[in-house]
C-alpha cells in the first residue's frame, strides 16, 4: 500500500514539475526575431495612439504586445501609465500584480515606483510610500530609492531618507538626491550642508538655481536662531518639503509667536501636510501681525473649508479677496466662487464677483462671469460679458473658453449660423480638447444626428483626463 502511495505521489510531483517546466519555458523563453519585430511595432503603434489620446486603442495595442513577449516590462508599464493618467489607480495596481510573475524583478520594481510617483504627485503620501516599499523589496535601484526617500521625508522618517539618499545615483536622479540630502542635513547642521553642496556641480543645468538659492541661504545664516530657521523654512516650503519646515519650526512655537514670517511658513507647512487644526491655530496667531495679509487669509480659508467649517471659510476668503484688491489672482477667485457654487450660495457668488469686476478689467475675470451667469441663467449679464470678450485680446487658452461659451449660447438660442465656423476655430486651437467634442456632440444632438453625437461624446470622455466634462457627457450619452 505504501509503495502504491509513493508511486502516485511521485507521478503527481513529476507531472507538476513537467507542467511548471513547460510554463517557465513558454513564459521566459527567448523571443524570436520575428516576435521582437512585432512587439516593437505594436509598442510604436500604441505610442502614436497615446499621442493622439486614443487611450482605449493604445491599451489594446500594448496588451497585444504583452501577449507576443510576456517577459518585457515596457508594455505593462505603458498600460499602467495610461490608467494613471486617468487616475484609475486600482486598475493600474491590478495590472502590476498580473505582471509580477511574468517580468523581471527590476521591471516590476520600476512599475511599482511608477505607481508610487503617481500617488506622490497627487499628495497621497501613504500610498506612495506603500508602493515604493513594494518596489524596493523587489529591487533596489536609483528610481526606487529616491522615490522612497521622498516619501519617507513626508512621513517624518528623516534618518531612513538620509540612508537611502546616501546610495549611488545615476545622472537622472543625482541632482535631486543630493539636494534633498542637503535639505535634510540643513535642518541638523547647516555647516555640513554647505560642505555637501558647495563643490557639487549639478548634472542638469536647470537645477543650478535650486542649489545656488539654498547655498546662498545657508551662507547667510547668523547667530539668530529664529532668523535661521525662518529662512530655511521658506526654502523647504516653497520647494515642496513642508515636513522639513515643521521639523525646525515646531519645536520653537513659543519663540516664534510674534514672528510673522515664521508663523506664516509654519501655517503653510501644516496646510500642505493636511494638518488643518494646527494650520488654523498657527495662522490665527499670525492674523494680528502685519504681513502676508491676502495669502495668510487665503490659507486660513482653505484650512477651515477642509475642516468643513464653511462659515469661517467664507469669512476668510472674503478677507483674502479684500486684501488682494486689484492684485487678486484668478486662482483665488475661481477657488472661492466654486466653493460658493458647490454649497448652493449662488447669490453670494454673484455678489463676490460683482465686487471684484468693478475694480478689474480682465479677460480671465469675464470668462469666469460667463460660467457664473450661464449657470444662474442670467442672460443679460452673460451676453454682456460675451460681448465684452468679443473685442478683447485673448491668449489661446482664453480663446478656447470664449468659443466654447459662444457656441453653447448659439445652440441654446437656436442661432446656429456661425456654429460650424466657431467649432472649426475651436478645433484648430486644440484638437484634443474634451470641451470641443462635448459641445460638438451637443450641436449634433440639436441636429438629431445621434450617431455622430455619440461618437463625439465618446471622444470627449476619452480625452477628458481631468474629469472636466465627464459627468455632463455621461448624462448625455445615457439619454441617446
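^ C-alpha cells above, recovered residues below v
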Amino acid at each position: 500500500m505504501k509503495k502504491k502511495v509513493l508511486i502516485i505521489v511521485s507521478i503527481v510531483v513529476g507531472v507538476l514539475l513537467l507542467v511548471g517546466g513547460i510554463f517557465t519555458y513558454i513564459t521566459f523563453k527567448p523571443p524570436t526575431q520575428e516576435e521582437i519585430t512585432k512587439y516593437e511595432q505594436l509598442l510604436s503603434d500604441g505610442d502614436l495612439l497615446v499621442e493622439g489620446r486614443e487611450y482605449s486603442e493604445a491599451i489594446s495595442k500594448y496588451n497585444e504586445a504583452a501577449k507576443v513577449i510576456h517577459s518585457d516590462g515596457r508594455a505593462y508599464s505603458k498600460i499602467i501609465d495610461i490608467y494613471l493618467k486617468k487616475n484609475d489607480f486600482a486598475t493600474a495596481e491590478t495590472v502590476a500584480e498580473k505582471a509580477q510573475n511574468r517580468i523581471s524583478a527590476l521591471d516590476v520594481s520600476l512599475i511599482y515606483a511608477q505607481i508610487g510617483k503617481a500617488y506622490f504627485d497627487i499628495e497621497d503620501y501613504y500610498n506612495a510610500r506603500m508602493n515604493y516599499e513594494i518596489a524596493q523589496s523587489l529591487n533596489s535601484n536609483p528610481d526606487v530609492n529616491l522615490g522612497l526617500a521622498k516619501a519617507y521625508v513626508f512621513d517624518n522618517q528623516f534618518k531612513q531618507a538620509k540612508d537611502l539618499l546616501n546610495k549611488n545615483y545615476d545622472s537622472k536622479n543625482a541632482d535631486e538626491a543630493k539636494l534633498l540630502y542637503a535639505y535634510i542635513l540643513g535642518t541638523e547642521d547647516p555647516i555640513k550642508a554647505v560642505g555637501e553642496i558647495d563643490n557639487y556641480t549639478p548634472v542638469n543645468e536647470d537645477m543650478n538655481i535650486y542649489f545656488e538659492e539654498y547655498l546662498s541661504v545657508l551662507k547667510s545664516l547668523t547667530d539668530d536662531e529664529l532668523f535661521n530657521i525662518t529662512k530655511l523654512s521658506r526654502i523647504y516650503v516653497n520647494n515642496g518639503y513642508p515636513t522639513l519646515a515643521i521639523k525646525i519650526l515646531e519645536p520653537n512655537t513659543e519663540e516664534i509667536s510674534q514672528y510673522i514670517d515664521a508663523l506664516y511658513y509654519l501655517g503653510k507647512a501644516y496646510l500642505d501636510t493636511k494638518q488643518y487644526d494646527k494650520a488654523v491655530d498657527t495662522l490665527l496667531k499670525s492674523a494680528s501681525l502685519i504681513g502676508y495679509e491676502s495669502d495668510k487669509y487665503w490659507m486660513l480659508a482653505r484650512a477651515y473649508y477642509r475642516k468643513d467649517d464653511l462659515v469661517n471659510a467664507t469669512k476668510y476668503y472674503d478677507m483674502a479677496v479684500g486684501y488682494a484688491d486689484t492684485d487678486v489672482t484668478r486662482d483665488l477667485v475661481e477657488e472661492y466662487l466654486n466653493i460658493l457654487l458647490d454649497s448652493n450660495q449662488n447669490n453670494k457668488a454673484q455678489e463676490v464677483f460683482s465686487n471684484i469686476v468693478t475694480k478689474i478689467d480682465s479677460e480671465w475675470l469675464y470668462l469666469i462671469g460667463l460660467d457664473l451667469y450661464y449657470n444662474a441663467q442670467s442672460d443679460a449679464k452673460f451676453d454682456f460679458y460675451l460681448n465684452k470678450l468679443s473685442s478683447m485680446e485673448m491668449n489661446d487658452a482664453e480663446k478656447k473658453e470664449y468659443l466654447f461659451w459662444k457656441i453653447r449660447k448659439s445652440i441654446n438660442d437656436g442661432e446656429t449660423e456661425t456654429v460650424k465656423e466657431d467649432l472649426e476655430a475651436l478645433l484648430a486651437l486644440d484638437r484634443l480638447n474634451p470641451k470641443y467634442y462635448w459641445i460638438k456632440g451637443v450641436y449634433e444632438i440639436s441636429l438629431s444626428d445621434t450617431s455622430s453625437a455619440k461618437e463625439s461624446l465618446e471622444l470627449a470622455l476619452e480625452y477628458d483626463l481631468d474629469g472636466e466634462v465627464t459627468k455632463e457627457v455621461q448624462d448625455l450619452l445615457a439619454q441617446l
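The chain is about 75% helix and 0% strand.
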